[in-house]
Amino acid sequence: MDQTHDRGDADRDAPDAAHDAPQRSANSAPRDAPAPRGREPISLKAALRRARLESAERGDAMDDVRGAETARLDILREQLEPVFAQLPEDCDLFDLGLIQGEKPRLFVDMIAYVEATRDRRGFRFLQDTRNGRVLLAESEQSNVIVQAVADYLARRLVEREKALAAAVYPTAHTLRAAALAPATAHAPQSHARPPRARPGFLRIVARLFTFVIEVLGSAVFFGLLAAGGWWLWKTYLQ
Question: Cα–Cα distance between 10 and 2 in angstroms, integer?
């Protein structure tokens, strides 16, 4: 009978032990498992390193683009050298030079130059004037730009010749004026003014009276001014 009682107690304790086992395992699980890691802070050094790499890549790309533009303008310069070799020896208006910078340009003179188009497929021939920048030619073919530069040089040479001729030889208008000058000098002056009549006696008297009045008025004015200054000095300064 005691054995039966003990077996019944054991059977009752078994469900309680089975019920408490999950709770103990649940309570002990967080203790045994590692704690979750917190979110790592954002690294400014890493972001700065990535920004520098991106900037270097963009800079390398821009350097490659500028190098390609400079190479194309250098080829155009070689094509223009025979044209510039035909200029007069005493002409110093033009100077063919390639300027490498943020925007490579091939200068023809001080105001005209060639640069690459925005799509970098062609050339633009520009000139700076008083009214702004003027587009003289634009094409993807270098021979078209070479012909436009040659035409520009020819026009500038014609303007130079006209300026030199005007400085050395007088114009036709000047010659005509010089030829007509003697005839005009000896011709009678039909539109000349008649001689002015001499002033009469009454006019002379009126002028003298006016002069006397002006002198007397000036004397009276300066006398009053001196008297007022003397009175102020006697009254307030002594």
Answer: 12
Alpha helices per DSSP H over the chain: 2-32, 44-84, 142-168, 172-186, 201-232
- For 34-74, the DSSP string reads PPPPPPPPPPHHHHHHHHHHHHHHHHHHHHHHHHHHHHHHH
pLDDT range class, residue 173, cuts 50, 70, 90: low
- Spatial distance between the Cα atoms of 173 and 167, rounded to a whole number of angstroms: 14
**153: Cα separation from own chain's centroid:** 27
- Nearest Cα neighbor of 101 from 116, 79, 86, 84 is 116
Q: Read off the pLDDT of residues 107-157 as tens digits, 9 standing for 90 and up.
A: 999 999 999 998 888 999 999 999 899 999 999 999 999 999 999 999 999
Q: Which long-range contacts (CB under 8 A, 24 or more apart) does 174-183 make?
A: none
Domain residue limits, the chain:
62-168
Q: What is the pLDDT of residue 18?
A: 47
Burial class (CB in 10 A: 0-12, 13-18, 19+), 162: exposed
- Rounded to two decimals, what is the model's pTM? 0.48
Contact assessment for residue 159 and residue 92, using Cβ atoms and an 8 Å cutoff: no
The C-alpha atoms of residue 130 and residue 155 are separated, in whole angstroms, by: 18
Look up residue 147 and give its two tokens: 């012909």
Q: Quote the radius of gyration of the chain (alpha carbons, Å).
A: 53
